[in-house]
Every structure is written in structure tokens, then in C-alpha cells.
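Problem 12. The chain below contains 212 residues. Write out its predicted structure in C-alpha cell notation.
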Amino acid sequence: MRERAYLIAESGRPKEILEAWRTAWYEAELRLSELMSRFGADGCFRFGFEKPSHFRFPGNRVPDGWTRPGANGSSRPKRTNTADQALIDALPWCQDLARTVQDAFGLPHGLTYEGPDGKGTRFLTTGGPNPFSACWTSRPDGIAEVILITPDYEAAARGQDRVRWVPEGSSPSVPDGFRRVTEAEVDLIFAQAKVDRERSVKIEEAPAMSGP
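Solution.
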């Protein structure tokens, strides 16, 4: 199930919590960049915003103590390379986005139901193994609001009876401070931000008008 809903964290707790999570993620990315430089890696592999465990090296030339690169160039420390593995394990990371969302807003990641084909349980995802994701863009005046991507709960429950949300006690109700938008509106937000950035660059590069 990959129907998605898009929630802009505009104010209140949603804005405060998700912007704090984003700041923590940026800080984690800086630490990751430093570790990758130490390894000599030029890329990494992961789902969403998770801490990576596999890395890519230029020309598939891996350091001593690393596994042979896979078809996509993925490599990780061998079992005997405890020193590099310990550096990866000790890398401080931001809280998992799904945990942040569930703890702060109580949104579900699954449901049980009774339908035409009997009883069932469904894990809800926005793509890959993750029930939640996020995106944002930048404007000339700074980074825009976080857009939380959630399962489309209405679509998930459609045609089912006796729906119960998982985990117990969670609710698909949109908390105050979020504004729901469509995917097309998200595309428009990103497109308008790009136009604004390009206009800002052109203004900065424009030659000063000479006086009379």
C-alpha cells in the first residue's frame, strides 16, 4: 500500500518537532560526511533517513578490511575489521523519523480489518520499508517547512470493515499545526521555490545600473 498523504508542518508542535528533527538529521549528515572522508568513501546506501551501514568507494577500490563491492558498489567492513565497524556503530544519529512521528503525533503505521476476503493486517508504507518520510525545499530566504509524508489512511481503510489502527491507541486524525496538501501542490511548491531561487540569482548577478 503506497497511497500517500502530504502534511505541511506549518505551526505549533508539528513545526517545532519536525524542524528539530531536521536539524538533528543535518547534524548527523555532517558527522557522516566526516566519517566517509576518513574511510575514503564517496557514497553510501540506506533507506530514507536511516544511518547507513554500506558504503561506495571511487572506482570500486575498497580499503583493506572491506568486503568486495557488490553489483552496485556496496561494501562494508569485514567481520575481522572491528575498528571501522566500531566507528560506524558509534556514529551518533538522529532519532528514527517513524519513532518521532508516532511518539509526537500518534499516527498509525498499520491497520487490522475485516473485508470481503476475511480478516487481515496491513503494514502501511510510503515506499520501501518506511511508514513515514519527509521532504522540503529551500527558498531565497531559507529552508521551507518540513512536509511529512504519511500513508493515505482514508484510502487504506476504504472498503474495509471494523478497522483498527496499529499501534493500539493511534489515530489517523491530522494534528493541529499540519496542513494537508495534494501531491500536485507539493510539486508546485518545489517548482515555485526553484523559480524564486533562480530569480534571486539573476538579481544578484545583474549589473548595477549606471546613473546619468
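Discussion. The mean pLDDT is 92. Students who got a different answer should revisit the alignment rule from Section 12.3.
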